[in-house]
Amino acid sequence: KSDPAYDPARDWIWEPPDGESREAVRLRVIAALKLVAAQFPDQEVVVVCHGVVISSVFAHVTGNWEEAPIPANCGMAILEHEDGEFRRVEVVAGCAVTPSRQLESEASAR
């Protein structure tokens, strides 16, 4: 990333031109998921999304951006919601998952 505002140690706050930071994605996604959870209490719901959305939800639930996984294409995660809060997020076994830092270092090595 050639933008001088980009900090690889805190890449989730970087906002690309004409885009949004991963932190902004997290805020927007969690608000939307809370609406879905409120509309369908005690029901299982399938949400189809991009990997960065799953990564953002993981960071929200765990409070940890550094270890937030980015699932492979067609990867899956399970998010549990109870009493108005997201309690647990789990990437489904068998789906390839790579922490975002590893992806960046692999891309830099090419």
**Tell me, what's the shape?**
elongated
Helix content: 25-40%
Structural class: alpha+beta
- Beta-strand share of residues: 15-25%
Order of helices and strands: HHEEEEH
Q: How big is the Rg?
A: 15 Å
Q: What is the strand arrangement across the widest sheet?
A: 1-4
Q: Indicate the low-confidence ranges by residue numbers.
A: none
Main beta-sheet strand count, sense and barrel state? 2 strands, antiparallel
**Overall pLDDT:** 84
Beta-strand segment tally: 4
Q: Could you tell me how far the N terminus lies from the C terminus, measured between alpha carbons in angstroms?
A: 14 Å
How many helices? The count is: 3
Supply database-style keywords.
single chain, two-stranded antiparallel sheet, elongated, 110 residues, alpha+beta
